[in-house]
Design brief:
Blueprint: E1 9-11, H1 22-38, H2 42-52, H3 61-72, H4 74-83, H5 90-93, E2 101-106, H6 114-122, E3 128-132, H7 139-142, H8 144-155
Length: 161
């Protein structure tokens, strides 16, 4: 982590924890990732990505095509397979960051339920927690405006809503 170089951090997505069903979500993600990288087809990529979306109908074909290119790269496959079982211990590391932290979470994140992120947020002095609905693991595709507004307000010190 970069506590001497960072003025603010935004965290969204996943924080490893055995609480609130996280392990089952992480195991499912690893299974879908292995399928997508082991046999990279539009179908395996789409299946993985749809699982990460709250509303899979809005997943654009272009995003699937981009991921297919990335996952078809042998270097990407090697990294994904070696990272599969790596433990990052983020719950212990996040509170040590020396910068303000925004936890931007969604109600439908299949990889890490929001109560896990909220619990970590509560252990970090001065952090902020934002919970948005109707989004899965990738709010930048499902609720982009909410993400941009909240991150901008946080980054520029506007702490309203």
């Amino acid at each position: 982590m970069w506590p001497t170089e960072t003025t603010a951090c935004g965290i969204r997505g996943g924080i490893p924890s055995n609480e609130h069903g996280y392990v089952s979500g992480q195991n499912r993600l690893q299974e879908l990732t292995r399928d997508a990288t082991g046999t990279s087809t539009k179908e395996t990529i789409r299946k993985r990505m749809e699982w990460l979306f709250h509303d899979p109908k809005i997943l654009p074909d272009e995003l699937v095509d981009i991921r297919l290119k990335i996952y078809s790269n042998p270097a990407t496959q090697e990294v994904l397979h070696t990272q599969d079982r790596k433990v990052y211990n983020l719950i212990e590391k996040i509170p040590k960051l020396q910068a303000p932290i925004l936890f931007f979470w969604t109600t439908h994140n299949p990889t890490c339920p929001w109560p896990v992120a909220d619990k970590v947020h509560q252990s970090v002095l001065g952090s902020r927690f934002v919970l948005v609905d109707k989004s899965g693991h990738w709010p930048q595709y499902e609720v982009l405006l909410a993400l941009v507004v909240r991150k901008s307000r946080f980054q520029f010190g506007i702490h309203q809503g």
